[in-house]
Specification:
- This protein has helices spanning 30-39, 52-63, 86-93, 121-137, 149-160, 175-183, 200-208, 238-249, 253-268; strands at residues 14-19, 42-47, 68-72, 99-108, 141-146, 166-168, 187-190, 214-216.
- With 277 residues, it is an alpha/beta fold.
- It has one domain (6-269): TIM Barrel (Alpha-Beta Barrel).
- An eight-stranded parallel sheet has the order 1-2-3-4-5-6-7-8.
- α3 (86-93) packs across α4, α4 (121-137) packs across α5 and α8 (238-249) packs across α9 (253-268).
- The longest helix has 17 residues, at 121-137.
């Protein structure tokens, strides 16, 4: 099993608001992953969908434990996959009460593969479809943005302002983008990147975020926090993200754990089973 992170040292509860338990490296050892989560006081997680082809497995994983939930959507960077319309996303979201979010969706211009931003209309239209589905389903959006923050914000304003809520996951943008996300009514989720040595501006974001809009995540199996950087990530490491935020803000770790857990329950309209704690 994984080394026990900081969570076992305190009597509190953490939540991983974004992980990919259906991905290789995690799905084949799910019982161990869940056991390590429990040992680290990580009492719940949102299992994120990145393609419709993957959704059945994501949904099955969420159904396997009372403290797991699922999303449905198509990651902005995925090409040559099934492209759902808003009606199909709405139908899939309503199949199961454990589906509590639409996404992961958004825009990603980091890998253009020789194309220009103007060629990314397919991403922008996919994002609009997900926003419309979230509005119709009254579910929050899980928003991915990389090298595309202005377009992401502009489309959210055009399509969803006042009609959708959501979270900018694995946030890596500037303080100004964080403030714009907050102005749109969104939450901001910080990952293990906040522990990286070169993440000075992200730590500034960690200090300025209102506690009632803060979420924490691993994005596992990617982006393991220090001291596990470069190794496979797991939801059991989310307390290390909380610990870094607590250090930056000069507050007790329990305060970050409690606030992010409360925000998770409120945003996704779930109740974490207290008997699991």
């Amino acid at each position: 099993m994984a080394n026990r992170p900081i969570g076992h040292q305190v009597r509190t509860m953490f939540v991983d608001s974004h992980c990919h338990l259906s991905f290789p490296g995690l799905r084949e050892r799910l019982p161990e992953v869940l056991q390590d989560m429990h040992a680290a006081q990580v009492r719940a997680a949102l299992v994120i969908c990145t393609t419709i082809e993957e959704f059945a497995e994501v949904r099955a994983i969420a159904a396997s434990a009372p403290n797991l939930w699922a999303s449905v959507g198509v990651h902005p960077d995925n090409e040559n996959v099934h492209e759902p319309d808003a009606e199909e996303l709405l139908h899939l979201a309503h199949q199961d009460k454990r589906v509590v979010a639409i996404g992961e969706t958004g825009l990603d211009y980091y890998r253009l593969n020789g194309r220009s931003v103007a060629d990314m209309d397919w991403q922008r239209e996919r994002f609009r479809t997900h926003i419309r589905a979230a509005a119709a389903a009254d579910l929050p959006l899980v928003i991915h943005t990389r090298s595309a923050s202005q377009d992401t914000l502009d489309i959210l304003r055009e399509e969803g302002q006042g009609r959708v809520r959501g979270v900018f996951h694995c946030f890596t943008e500037t303080v100004a983008v964080a403030r714009a996300a907050l102005d749109l009514g969104c939450h901001v989720s910080l990952s293990g990147i906040v522990t990286f040595r070169n993440a000075g501006e992200l730590r500034e974001v960690a200090r300025m975020l209102p506690l009632d809009r803060l979420l924490i995540e691993t994005d596992s199996p990617y982006l393991a926090p220090v001291p596990h950087r470069g190794k496979p990530n797991t939801p059991a490491y989310v307390p290390l993200v909380a610990a870094e935020i607590a250090r930056e803000r000069g507050v007790p770790l329990e305060q970050i754990a409690e606030a992010s857990t409360r925000n998770f329950e409120r945003l996704f309209r779930v109740q974490i089973p207290r008997e699991a704690a």
